[in-house]
Amino acid sequence: VQLQASGGGLVQAGGSLRLSCAASGLTFSSYTMGWFRQAPGKGRAVVGHVDWSGERPYYADSVKGRFTISRDNARNTVYLQMNSLKPEDTAVYSCGAAGLRTGRYEYWGQGTLVTVSS
Predict the structure, then answer these.
(1) 24-44 burial: b if 16+ Cβ within 10 Å, else e
(2) Residue 4, SS3?
(3) Whose C-alpha in 8, 51, 69, 115 is 20 to 30 A from the C-alpha of 84?
(4) What band does 102 get if pLDDT is binned at 50, 70 and 90?
């Protein structure tokens, strides 16, 4: 199983970025897909997640109203649209796949760095 995040980069505060996470080696539609981030010197924190249908996303309070998670099951890809970025959003962003039955994250991908300058 591979989860590959991409789309990170340097952006000014107030700007936008769209991250992608491409999955392979698993039945993508059978997994809840989550986005996480780890800021410098801090632990990993959940950004949000979306179930197999993509219709019931969950967001952490810190990103609610600014970030949108979507998925394309035909492309085995989950997206994170980030708008109105703030310097405190600077982190390594990664994706994970949680089994529908267990609800536990079984697979993790390598992250992509997002840097927001003030």
Answers:
(1) eebebeebbbbbbbeeeeeee
(2) strand
(3) 51
(4) confident
Amino acid at 37: R
Q: Tell me the C-alpha distance between 15 and 49, whole Å.
A: 22
Report the C-alpha gap between 108 and 118 in whole angstroms. 30
E strand or H helix at 42: none
Tell the residue number behind the tokens 């536990």, with chain if given: 104
Average pLDDT over residues 11-37: 97
CA-to-CA distance for 71 and 77, rounded, in angstroms?
6
- Coil/strand/helix, residue 88: helix
pLDDT digit string, tens, across residues 27-78: 999 999 999 999 999 999 999 999 999 888 999 999 999 999 999 999 999 9
Half-sphere exposure of residue 90: CA atoms within 13 angstroms, side-chain side: 12
